[in-house]
Design brief:
450 residues, mainly beta, Pectate Lyase C-like, two-stranded antiparallel sheet, 5 helices
Length: 450
Amino acid sequence: MVAMNLLPIVLATLAVAPTAFASPLEATALEARGRTHNGKETTDRPVVFPYPLNTGKKFKETPRTTKTCFVDALGNGLDDGPNILAAAKKCNNGGKIALLDDLYMIRTPLDLQLNKVDIELQGTLKFVDDIPFWEKNSFKYEFQNSSSFIQIGGKDVNIYGGGTIDGNSQKWIDAHAANSWTWRPILVTFFDLDNAYISNINFRYSANWYILVHTCKNMIFDNVSIAGGTTSKNEPKNTDGWDTYRSDNIVIQHSKIDNHDDCVSFKPNSTNILVQSLDCNGSHGISVGSLGQYPKYYDIVENIYVFNTTMTNATSAGRIKVWSGEYAKPPSWVEGGGGGHGRVFNVTWDAIRLKNIDYAIEITQCYGQSNLTRCSEVPATLKISNVLFRGLYGTASKKYDPRVGSLVCGGPENCNNIYARDINIQPPSAKSPTFTCRNMDQSLLDIPCA
């Protein structure tokens, strides 16, 4: 067995007791219960804190709000975006934006730069499905040619209320099936945001990723629901639940996700992130990467802890995906990559329940490279070390039966201190499960490598 001091160091910084530090919102919990507008009442800001584990870093209090701006929906399909932007300007620096009506239609890109602001969403924000308009007017980001309907930044922000943000994705899904170059926006991007709490919000029908956390720090997502689907023969693509990028001290917890890509993806320069108590269905796993896509960048993912989560009907449960050592472009992909540098360090998957999973564990350093012979000739240079898979248990699908995992590094010098402990995965055939293990120290893997 592995000595405790060899396990990833995150274990030393996470506390099981929920009282490791006081709730960040206790100071505002006694704020007077809301105001009534058009027969509907605003509610108290919810109390949100990491539970049962925390990242070891404190989350700061956010000031109480001192004014409220109500936004009345125009109805008849008219654009409510300008009125929301006006309310954000009027109630910035200490106010609450109250969206209490049933439906707000949006045809305006929403750039919300907020300071000490609450957004209470009780109704639905729904984006018009005008593809040419959004391809031209959505917010654009260099990373993976991404774009977004909404961009929220600033400091000391709370978003709650039980409402829904709806990407109205069916037209996008069908357009992308016909033309993979269709520029599909992310539903919501949090960009350069510090000290924020997103709770009791539903994200529905995204055309692309649901949530991008871009250059943010000190955020908690709690009691979030993510779901989509299709009414045609075409399936949604790239509908990641969360993607974190250049972000630090993020908690994602107590949420339910039903999607068709990564449940959570830790993209380059994601650090000190805790994911706990999620229920992920239909996903590609809780994944590190993809990394090493761009040669001019050094990608870092470190101090990640995934705990007490259920993965159902997924291609993988815990996954690390790294591009190969040279540029490659898969035939059906808009963008290729490879040849980048960096490191994955101190990442743990712990207490993960699996139901009908293709692979319980997957590590690849040939992501995006269909020519595996060439990938082995020019292996990835990105290093993977101090990774622990512990307490993964449940059932595999029949796809690779009896193989239930694949741990393959580009070369033995690239993967160090990769541990697997207490893994119990049963294939449907009831045969003895096996794992593919290459280019790593198999004495650290308490799994049947074949």
